[in-house]
Amino acid sequence: MLEMRAITAGYARNAPVFRNVSLSLEPGEALGLLGPSGCGKSTLARVAALLHHPDAGSLTVDGTPVRRWRHRAPREQRTAFGVVFQQARLSADPRLALTDLIAEPLRATGRRADVSGRVAELAATVGLTTDLLSRRPHEVSDGQLQRACLARALVLRPRWLVCDEMTAMLDASTTAALVRVVEDYRASTGAGLLAVGHDRVLLDRWCDRTVEWGTLTSG
Questions:
Q1: CB neighbours of 94 closer than 8 A, spacing ≥ 6?
Q2: Chunked in runs of 10, what are the mean pLDDT values of the chain (219 residues)?
Q3: pTM above 0.70, yes or no
Q4: Angle between helices 98-108 and 142-154 (to 10 degrees)
Q5: Residue 20 — left, alpha, or beta (φ > 0 → left; ψ -120 to 50 → alpha)?
Q6: Are strands 30-34 and 192-197 parallel, antiparallel or unpaired?
Q7: How far is the C-alpha of 111 from the C-alpha of 95, rounded, in Å?
Q8: DSSP SS3 for 105
Q9: How do 16-25 and 81-84 pair as beta strands?
Q10: Residue 2, CA atoms < 13 Å, CB-side half-sphere
Q11: pLDDT score of 37
């Protein structure tokens, strides 16, 4: 279970983006988090994925309390998450070819022997042709780059996926393709999903349940 209790978080001392937010997600569940831009849902998603240390509150992952965030978190907890952000170009190193972008987590965790096979497997899964893998981010479309970012999120076989406005910058066909990849992955692994967005129709179709941001806060 992924459980957040009374989370307060922000980016400046004494100026939190939100206060006292609680949210829980069962293994295998797809949960949509609906809210307008600027409400703090992306910050909460980063806290959930161990990418941002909250100012207060608690986070429990698979029964284990989280004590550290980012690179200080234990590897087992860090690698339990795969994250896809809204703006692929801000989350991708422009110097890396797509094959190296996808392989980043493998190399960072000492699994270099798995790179060739796993990258080829995931490229096919997300719909990237072989010729695209040697290109850098500026040489591919937004949709192609987001496909690579999704492959990167899946490369370590995470138990939890956090998709923060993953399809907001994409056309309808690419959106449908990436959602299908996520759902196929969830069906085969039992992974849980936190899908953040402002499109109620998409979240309601994609997720088992959708919660509105305003229902999570108190105080």
A1: 136, 137, 138
A2: 95 88 96 91 95 95 94 92 94 96 92 88 97 97 97 97 94 95 96 95 94 78
A3: yes
A4: 20
A5: left
A6: parallel
A7: 21
A8: helix
A9: unpaired
A10: 25
A11: 85
Name the CA dihedral angle for 90, 91, 94, 99, rounded to a multiple of 10 degrees. Answer: -150
Beta strands in the chain (DSSP E): 2-10, 16-25, 30-34, 56-61, 64-65, 81-84, 160-164, 192-197, 209-212
Residue of 142, 148, 153, 154 lying closest to 129 (CA atoms): 148
Structural tokens at position 152? 């990167």
Residue 204 CA to residue 95 CA, distance in Å, equals 37
Per-residue pLDDT, 47: 96
Across-strand partners of 194?
31, 162
The two three-digit tokens of residue 167, written as one number: 């399809």
Q: What residues contact residue 193 under an 8 Å CB cut-off, 6+ apart?
A: 25, 29, 30, 31, 160, 161, 162, 163, 182, 186, 207
Phi, psi dihedrals of residue 66, rounded to the nearest 5° = -85, 125
Who contacts 14 (Cβ-Cβ below 8 Å, separation ≥6)? none
- CB of 13 closer than 8 Å to CB of 53: no
Q: Which two tokens mark 98?
A: 């797509």
Q: Which of 190, 154, 187 is nearest to 81 (CA)?
A: 154
